[in-house]
Each structure stands twice: as structure tokens, then as C-alpha cells.
Design brief:
Number of helices: 24
Strand order of the largest sheet: 2-11-10-3-9
Helix content: 25-40%
Radius of gyration: 30 Å
Largest sheet: 5 strands, mixed
Distance between the termini: 29 Å
Oligomer: single chain
Shape: globular
Length: 673
């Protein structure tokens, strides 16, 4: 691994750490664990690369102070070192036993939730805190007080006691919460862990109480009464005797066989529990011995976590549904017997295209192995040939569109089948959703249900019909399709205002394959508007920066279609802006690429600064690479991943002031550009 690759990997892991602590993990534990192993390997080979803020040296992610009141932990809340094979478990056990032959262990469920410690003084709960970065967390006492499993009073305990446990959400509470979210038109949660994290960090305890959280205590952090701390299992047993206190399920073990048997028994429970676990924790029972086996600044001493492989289950395909996407693409979806994976019930997964179906030999009646990508999206890993029923054959996608009956084609060198009818009803809904979206025409007041209702009423049969809705105002108000008078008038006004949008937004809204907002801007800037763009040849289109052959072909095909040209003419008659407004463009930054990061002082947002760069012939990118001319960041001393990478590659870092001086012909402070 090279130094730039190491820096990029470190930056990615920091990002995923912050997402995880905030309650919206974006990759699976398995994928994250593999990335961490790669990072550790790189640091072992190049110890000079490792810094104190490396992800291998810190637990969790820094607490965002605006999220809540922060608190410094009395006892650091560090992570547990993960291992991925039983051989690694036994290697660690034998090391412990080589020093203490009479050692006993505890093997416990590793609950998939978020860590929280609770402090008691003379039997009364005084503080509950999240892990945060392992040293500083958030005060969540109010929310913890409404979790039934968090005991508020310990009548028989005097002195100081701090316990640590895992806040989690049961499958039943998770499904109930998501049903409530759907009913109220809000975004649903991806999995119980994300939901639990978001719920614990709510500012309103009534929301936390309504959704329902649970809590298992898995460790005594500190205790004035030594009986609670001398033996781990004995401490948990004493806590379990307190009314309402739940402690993590586990087993005592001494021999290798007992330890491995306990790991297997816990693993076999995964499908039967009412909550998620993602591993088994092996702990030294005698607390005084743990400090002899440290695992580094990030991990607490005296225990390890065996991580189970990603959960997979078999199911039988009962049906294959084929829908049509916005660009006419046929999307096959397998419908199989419901199974539980990573805390949710799943019964559907994409089959991508005909090549994927053929490669995995999938047909109706086949048994398939299903897993979750990122522990969120169900996917099919393979079929099970030995379980294929007699007479079952590989599924073949239809040769006509299931929505409109028009022919479908497979483009050369591509795997997808597409409906060639531009007026296909199935495409219409998705075309309109894209057209009114924020990245395209940004017409406020439209939702998917509104669009569907207008299509059902026969008021929307194409993009141009949006601009005819004002002629049906009274009908819209009477039927209440998008609301009554106030909402209807606001929607009509928003549609009318969209006519003033720059033509690159209109081009984005047309949903030409491979033409997103960035490439739309480039095209409009290059051709000046639709007049020249519509008549451009493929050769001319390929001359545009960052427009390749496939995109050029898609653009040319779109504007060669008489139906599409008629649409553009109709939109022109409605008064939409098809040509770029006169602006003073220059080429001072031609051939230069900038990356913008951090907060800004002279511009309202990054898009405004990017627009200025484009207007002077430059380009913007989302990440730093060897092709980057300069990184624009007001915090020149920041230890962010982008700053580090820029310094590693010798790329100048400019403040906004530096950049504006550059435009005025002055030298930037951080170096020549």
C-alpha cells in the first residue's frame, strides 16, 4: 500500500466511524472490519505513518459538541479488539493461560447496538453517557431515564458504581417504529442499530420513550464495593439481582473446548433472538488480571471479540417481477419466502440483468442464498443447484415492455434491456420525479404521490403537461389532488418560477443517460444552450471536456428523436429558458482543477464558489488527486483527510483569500498554482 492509499483509507474509516456513531452506518461491520485490518497491516509495515489520531488508535468518533452536552468518562469506554477466526481466539486464550493457569473466562453475546455507561451514587442514577470517541461522550441521562431496562434506583447499594452496557432495539420495537415513520410520511430506518442510535440521541425524551429501547449491562466499570468488581461473572450476577436490571447473556468457560462451544452456541442463537448480535466476547473473569493483557490505546484490556461472518440465509424464489425504470431499463426483482436478516424481514432482492440471472442460474422455484450488502440492502449471492426442482429453468426477461408492450432492445456491449418507447407510462412517473427534483428543475411542492395522482387523473402525460396544470387550477382545488387552494397555488407558482431556471437544470431534468448536473453544466457552458447542443454531432460532443463516447451517443440519440425535439420546442413556447444568460466568461483557470472543503466566508455555499471557478474556465472535483491544481480550505492547519492528502502530494492549499488573489493575478500564499 502506498502512502496516498493509506491516507485515503484512513480518511474513509474516519468518515464511517462518524456515520456509525451518529446512527447511520453506511457499510457492513464485515466490510469495516476488513478495512481496519488493511489499515493495521499498513501501519505494521510503516509505523512512521501512524499518528495519534489514526483510526487504529481511537475508539469511535469525536463527539460533535453541537449534538449535546459532552462529558469526560471516569473510565475510558474503549472498543474491543476483534478477531475473525477461532484460531486467533485460542491463541489469545493460550497467552493468558500461560501466565495464569487457573484463569476462568466468560463468553457473552456481543449485542449490536451502541455503548452507554450509567453512574450511580448511593444507589441513585446520576449520569448516563454515550461512548463518543472513547474518552469524551454525550450526556444522555434524560433519554436513558425513559428506557425501562435502565434501573434508576439501587436500594441496596451505597457508594459509587458505574456500569457499562449496550443500548439496542428489539426487532418488534424496530418494526413498530418504522411503521409509525411510514404512517407519518417520514424516512424509515435501515436497521435496528441505526434506529437505536438515532433514538438515544433524540433531544425529546418522549420520542425515545415512544419508540422503545432496551439495555443490557455487560461490565462493571468501577465500584466502591469490591465484590462487584473482583469477578466479572459474580458482578453481573449481583447486578441481575437488582430489580429490573438486565445483564448480557453468557457462559462461564475454562477449557478450550468450553470456550469454542460457547461461541458456537451463541452463534446458533442468532436466528432465534429478538435482537441483533454480531459476535461473541471472550473476557478474563478476574478483573485484576485484565490490565496484564492490553491491546493498545484504542482497545480495552482483558477481552477479545470473535466476529461471526456476515449473516446469510437460504430462501426459495416464488416470483420474478419486472419493472421499468426512468430510462426504460427493465429491472428484474426476485420475490422469495420472507427471511430475517440483520434485524429485518426481507423478501425481495434485485436480479440486475439477464447476464446476472444466467451466471447464477436463477429461476422461479430455485433456492438462493441471500445476504445484506452493508447490512442494509438484500442481495443474492448464489443459487443452490442441488435444491433446484425438476423442470426449473433459468428465467428469461421478456422481449416486450411489461408496461406498454413496446419492443425492448439490448444495446451493444451492454447488459441491460431497455424499452424504446419514450412515452412508456412506467417511465413517465420516474421521468417526472427526476424532472421536478432538487438537482434538476427543483419544483417545490411535488411528491411521488402527487405525481402519481396527477397521472391517474390524466393531467400529466408528459413533462410539458406540468406547465398546463395552471389551466386546471379549479379542478385541482376541488379534487384536492395536491391540497386545497393554498397548496395548489403554491405549486402552480413554483412551476411558473421554474421557467426562469438556467438551461443546465432543464438538461438535467430530461434524464438523458449519463447526463447529470455536472455534465449538463459543462455542455451548456460549451454550446451556450440548446440550439447548438441539439444539432451537435457525436464528434463535436466528444470534444467537450469529460464527455465520453457513450454519453455523446446518448445525447445525439436523444435529440435525433423527433418526439424529443418537439418536446423542447413546446417547452420553449411555454417560456422556459433554453439559452444561457449572457455572462462574462474567461479562461484564467482553464485546465485547472480545484477541490473545495471546509466552511466558507465569502461565498454562501460551495456551489457558488464552484460556479465562479467554472465561469473562469476551471473545473471542480470532490476529492484530492494528482490531477488537482489546488485545495481550497480556509483552515490551512486542519488535519482533515483532504488537507493531509494535498500535503502528501505537494498540492497547494489555498484559503478563499488566496484563491481570489489568484484570480486577480497575485501569487497565493501556499505556493504557485
Amino acid at each position: 500500500m502506498t502512502r496516498p492509499e493509506y491516507e485515503e483509507l484512513s480518511s474513509k474509516i474516519r468518515y464511517y466511524n462518524e456515520a456509525y456513531e451518529a446512527g447511520h452506518s453506511e457499510i457492513s461491520d464485515y466490510e469495516y472490519d476488513r478495512m481496519m485490518l488493511d489499515l493495521k497491516k499498513a501501519e505494521a509495515e510503516h509505523p512512521e505513518w501512524r499518528t495519534p489520531d489514526s483510526p487504529t488508535q481511537r475508539a469511535g468518533a469525536p463527539v460533535k459538541r453541537e449534538a449535546g452536552v459532552t462529558v469526560t468518562h471516569d473510565v475510558p469506554m474503549l472498543s474491543i479488539q476483534d478477531v475473525f477466526s477461532k484460531e486467533e481466539v485460542l491463541e489469545w486464550v493460550h497467552e493468558v493461560r500461560s501466565r495464569h493457569s487457573d484463569v476462568r473466562f466468560s463468553v457473552e453475546q456481543k449485542i449490536d447496538g451502541l455503548s452507554m455507561s450509567v453512574r450511580y451514587e448511593d444507589g441513585r442514577m446520576v449520569l448516563a453517557e454515550t461512548r463518543g470517541d472513547g474518552y469524551i461522550g454525550e450526556d444522555v441521562t434524560l433519554n436513558a431515564s425513559v428506557i425501562p431496562d435502565v434501573v434508576k434506583e439501587l436500594p441496596n447499594y451505597r457508594g459509587f458504581l458505574e456500569v457499562r452496557g449496550e443500548v439496542y432495539m428489539s426487532f418488534a420495537d424496530f418494526e413498530k417504529t418504522n411503521e409509525e415513520q411510514e404512517l407519518n410520511g417520514r424516512k424509515t430506518f435501515a436497521n435496528p442499530r441505526n434506529c437505536a442510535a438515532g433514538t438515544l440521541r433524540q433531544l425529546d425524551p418522549s420520542v425515545t420513550k415512544r419508540r422503545g429501547l432496551s439495555f443490557f449491562v455487560f461490565n462493571v466499570q468501577r465500584a466502591d464495593d469490591p465484590v462487584y468488581y473482583e469477578s466479572h461473572r459474580r458482578g453481573l450476577e449481583l447486578l441481575a439481582q437488582q430489580e429490573g436490571m438486565k445483564t448480557v447473556p453468557g457462559f462461564e468457560a475454562v477449557t478450550d473446548e468450553e470456550i469454542l462451544d460457547a461461541i458456537d452456541r451463541i452463534g446458533n442463537m442468532r436466528g432465534e433472538l429478538g435482537y441483533d448480535i454480531d459476535g461473541a466476547v471472550v473476557k478474563i473473569d478476574r478483573s485484576s488480571l485484565r490490565a496484564e493483557f492490553p491491546a493498545g490505546s484504542k482497545y480495552s484490556a482483558g477481552h477479545i471479540a470473535y466476529k461471526y461472518p456476515p449473516e446469510e440465509k437460504e430462501s426459495v424464489i416464488r416470483e420474478i417481477e419486472v419493472s421499468v425504470g426512468m430510462t426504460g431499463r427493465l429491472n428484474p426483482t426476485a420475490v422469495f419466502d420472507p427471511i430475517r436478516l440483520c434485524g429485518t424481514t426481507v423478501s425481495r432482492a434485485t436480479l440486475h440483468n439477464q447476464d446476472f440471472i444466467n451466471e447464477l442460474h436463477i429461476g422461479i422455484g430455485d433456492t438462493v442464498v441471500v445476504y445484506k450488502s452493508g447490512e442494509i440492502i438484500p442481495k443474492i449471492r448464489c443459487s443452490v443447484p442441488e435444491k433446484r426442482p425438476e423442470g426449473t429453468v433459468d428465467y428469461v426477461l421478456p422481449h416486450i415492455c411489461p408496461s406498454c408492450g413496446s419492443p425492448v432492445i439490448r444495446e451493444e456491449d451492454k447488459a441491460d434491456l431497455r424499452c424504446i418507447n419514450p412515452n412508456c407510462p412506467a417511465q413517465l412517473e420516474r421521468h417526472l420525479i427526476n424532472y421536478v427534483g432538487r438537482d434538476a428543475m427543483d419544483i417545490k411542492g411535488f411528491g411521488t404521490e402527487n405525481i402519481r395522482a396527477l397521472i391517474r387523473e390524466g393531467l400529466l402525460n408528459g413533462i410539458a403537461d406540468l406547465y398546463r396544470l395552471k389551466d386546471h387550477r379549479d379542478r385541482l382545488v376541488e379534487a384536492g389532488i395536491v391540497g386545497r387552494e393554498k397548496n395548489t397555488d403554491k405549486l402552480i407558482l413554483s412551476i411558473e418560477k421554474s421557467k426562469e431556471n438556467e438551461p443546465d437544470r432543464l438538461l438535467t431534468g430530461l434524464a438523458i443517460p449519463n447526463v447529470g448536473r455536472t455534465s449538463a453544466r459543462t455542455l451548456i457552458r460549451y454550446f451556450g444552450g440548446f440550439t447548438k447542443l441539439m444539432d451537435a454531432s457525436e464528434e463535436q460532443l466528444r470534444e467537450v471536456p469529460d464527455i465520453g463516447g457513450v454519453t455523446a451517443e446518448a445525447i445525439r440519440s436523444f435529440f435525433a428523436d423527433p418526439v424529443n425535439r418537439a418536446l423542447i420546442e413546446e417547452l420553449k413556447e411555454f417560456g422556459l429558458t433554453l439559452e444561457a444568460k449572457e455572462k462574462s466568461f474567461s479562461a484564467e483557470l482553464a485546465g485547472k482543477t480545484f477541490v473545495v472543503t471546509g466552511s466558507l466566508e465569502h461565498f454562501p455555499n460551495r456551489e457558488a464558489l464552484a460556479e465562479l471557478i467554472l465561469s473562469h474556465g476551471g473545473k471542480t472535483a470532490g476529492s484530492v488527486s494528482r490531477k488537482t491544481t489546488a485545495l481550497i480550505n480556509n483552515d490551512l492547519t486542519s488535519m482533515s483527510g483532504k488537507n493531509k492528502k494535498a500535503k502528501e502530494l505537494g498540492i497547494p492549499i489555498l484559503s478563499e483569500e488566496d484563491f481570489l488573489k489568484l484570480l486577480n493575478g497575485e501569487n497565493a500564499q501556499e505556493g504557485e498554482v
